[in-house]
Amino acid sequence: MPTSTVQKMRPWAASPKDRALTGLSVLLSVLTAILIVAVTPMKGKLAYFALFFLAWFVIDSLFVVRKQGSKGVRDGLAAKVTLFGAVIVSMAVFSILWATISKGVKGLNLAFVTENMREASLFDPIGKGGILHAILGTLMLIAIAIIFSVPMGILTALYLTEIKGRAVGLIQFLVQAMSGVPSVVAGLFIYAAIILNTPLRSSGFLGGLALTILMVPTVTRTAQEVLNLVPRDLREAGLAMGATQWKTVALVVVPAARSGLITATILGVARIAGETAPLLFTVGVFDSYNFNPFKGDQGTIPTVVWRGLMGGTPESVQRAWSAILVLLIVVLIMFVLARSFGSKSPKK
Questions:
Q1: Nearest alpha carbon to residue 100 among 331, 301, 327, 321
Q2: Which residue windows are coiled coil (predicted)?
Q3: Which of 63, 134, 218, 230 lies in disulfide reach of 268, CB 3.0 to 4.6 Å?
Q4: Which domain CATH number covers 264?
């Protein structure tokens, strides 16, 4: 008895005719954009881009309305608006990366990442002096901020999601309010509260405290969202086995949200890594190594960038661009390391 093969049905997949119509609409949109730019005062890449998407909206909608009616037009319009937003965001990100890489790589060399500026100035030729002191200073400040902000942020998120005491509303309001605090205000707060009123002077520790103020809200809000995603069944199973609430949180909820909590830390680091304003008030500038976070000014990559751009000479500006590229690389390395450790399942 002959057997018949069952073919897979994919109703969501575009047919050859649909792909041909899509290609035709794109081609007509490109030609329309070129024609409008040629006969009107509108010029430049931005004009081509805007006119192409506008023409594509119109032309493709005409094809859709003929085949699917007005309902198909609404669905297609929503998809195109979403695509348009994604393209805009992608272009912004890639343009920033391209500008940073293309301008920063010109000043990168071995000396730039292995030497300090103790015997050089920002105005010396590229190749003399480097920013190793600033890299180490930035890592030190980030480490201080992580030590303070990650426990505070995660514990606050646990209180908001697990304990839900009387102060939940007030704490939630404070976290949201702190999320909108300008970075310069954090630096001014540490400067006015500590430097002006205590014997302490600018140091890496005070800079880490200023960055902590900025990092805590990001860690708290992200950790809160992650903890809310942990299934309620896991909590109920722990309690049903006789565990206390905090034992359930420590042994069940937190391990289940481990990857998300690491992501919260990464987002917090990304929030503070490039901050300059608070460091000008709390850390100052320094051209050599300072491994004591409690005494003396500290060199950091953001202050190197600020000084380089303020210098105004081709050499100082080039150092600033190269320092920005190094900062991106440092943050990327930290992101990769954090994700690699977070992806490993805990030992049982």
A1: 321
A2: none
A3: 218
A4: 1.10.3720.10
The Cα angle at residue 160 between residues 228 and 153, in degrees rounded to 5: 90
Residue 184 sits in the same domain as residue 138: yes
Q: Give residue-wise pLDDT tens across range 132-152.
A: 999 999 999 999 999 999 999
> What is the number of structural domains in the chain?
2
Whether residue 87 sits in one domain with residue 24: yes
When comparing pLDDT for 71 and 181, which is higher? Answer: 181
Distance of CA 45 to the CA centre of its chain: 27
Cα–Cα distance between 238 and 227 in angstroms, integer?
Answer: 16
Could you tell me the residue range of the domain that residue 330 belongs to?
114-343
**Is residue 203 a part of any domain in this protein?**
yes
pTM listed for this prediction: 0.80
pLDDT of 278 strictly over 50: yes
Claim to verify: residue 78 and residue 185 sit in the same structural domain: no
